[in-house]
Write a structure and sequence with these properties.
The protein has nine helices and ten strands. By secondary structure, it is α/β, with parallel strands linked by helices. The strands form two sheets. The protein has a six-stranded mixed β-sheet with strand order 6-7-8-3-9-10, sandwiched between helices. A hairpin with a 2-residue loop joins strand 9 and strand 10. It is globular, with a radius of gyration of 19 Å. The chain binds adenosine-5'-diphosphate and magnesium ion.
């Protein structure tokens, strides 16, 4: 079943046509890679999907719900979470507090919890804390819950951003270059973590340049170049596609 359906999506910034007639779909349970050279329009595509930017034209459905026109928090409540190319954490908060902000998306709606009797509020908070600690364990940050987020090493900040996104209980997680800045060992850990998310019912759409991750993990790959989809298919097909090699993979193909 299609979870995300992108229909003829276009975006221009003044004279810059960042995306032109982009269409693709992501089925529930898939890991789909979105690749392409710098400036191809990948991050713009994510900004349109999560509602940071309005498209110039086109549609974006999550399940059967059209999301164009909905603000980001509504899309998040429908089951969409995201991590950013440039990590975005709350610097003044601890690791645990960063994760807890993810739960508030569903819970502090219109001051709802403020109306609950206090014992129920503290029970809900204790439950959130328990689940947040579980998520920190899952991403490999167990024991670091009380550290200030900004004191974490770079690779750990990336994991924390993932944990916070998971706290939103997404159906679909958009990851923008999650392996950027990671060493090969950390990238391996990241891949193992991503594989653990599928059985939890989380579908992944991943922008990434690291071909070990893309080719090793993605079930399907969509290739953007100059704002257009130039290929889509299984890793083996994409690797051999002459247009993809010319636009993007050429450099890697030079290896013996
Ligand atoms: N907010 C913006 N305002 C103007 N131009 C933008 C904006 N965001 C992206 N662009 C332009 O859109 C094109 C695609 O950028 P981007 O989506 O960041 O590419 P990628 O993530 O594939 O490297 C680039 O030419 C970029 O300069
Ligand atoms: Mg980008």
């Amino acid at each position: 079943m299609e979870l995300l359906t992108i229909n003829n999506l276009s975006k221009s910034f003044g004279g810059v046509q960042a995306l032109t007639d982009v269409s693709f779909a992501v089925a529930a349970g898939e890991i789909v890679g979105l690749i392409g050279p710098n400036g191809a329009g990948k991050t713009t595509c994510f900004n349109l999907i999560n509602g940071l930017l309005p498209p110039t034209a086109g549609g974006i459905r999550l399940g059967s719900t059209e999301m164009v026109g909905l603000p980001p928090y509504r899309r998040a409540r429908l089951g969409l979470a995201r991590t950013f190319q440039n990590i975005q954490l709350f610097g003044g908060m601890t690791v645990l507090e960063n994760v807890l902000t993810g739960y508030h998306l569903h819970q502090q709606v219109g001051g709802f919890t403020a109306l609950l009797p206090l014992p129920r509020v503290s029970r809900a908070q204790a439950e959130n804390r328990r689940r947040a600690l579980e998520l920190l364990e899952l991403v490999g940050l167990g024991g670091k819950e009380d550290e200030p987020a900004e004191a974490l090493a770079y690779g750990d900040q990336r994991r924390l951003e993932i944990a916070r996104a998971l706290a939103q209980q997404p159906q679909l997680l958009l990851m923008d270059e999650p392996a950027a800045g990671l060493n090969p060992r950390e990238t391996e850990d990241l891949m193992a973590l991503m594989e653990k998310l599928l059985p939890l019912g989380i579908t992944l759409l991943v922008i990434e340049h690291d071909m070990t991750l893309v080719m090793g993990l993605c079930h399907r790959i969509v290739v953007l170049d100059h704002g257009e989809v130039i290929a889509a298919g299984a890793p083996g097909e994409i690797r051999r596609d002459p247009r993809v090699i010319e636009a993007y993979l050429g450099r890697e193909e030079d290896e013996p």
